[in-house]
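Input sequence (102 aa), recorded before submission:
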Amino acid sequence: MTIGAPSDPAHVTGLFKDRLDEIGAQGEVAVQLAGRPFHISRAFVDDLAEQRLTDRIASLRKALLIFHSPTDDIVGIDNASRIFWPRSIPRASCRSPARTIS
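Predicted structure, token format:
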């Protein structure tokens, strides 16, 4: 299952791209993501760069449920498509109208 996940894990580094040199030099830096501090290590950044998620998704032999909002401002809806399309058939897609839950 994915919920609002980027199709390329390296997308995450774009959220703190202005701190990448600092992370590389210091080994670990606290960054603000969604208003909260997170400690990001050089090893984490290196691991993200090595991941080939699309290849791994294509070879899955399990069901995959993908949820993604077309109004997500951080991870665009095109990421859901890039996760969905490499999958072997059978696959199905459905759209839900946007609504606010109170």
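Checked by second reader. The first helix runs from residue 20 to 26.
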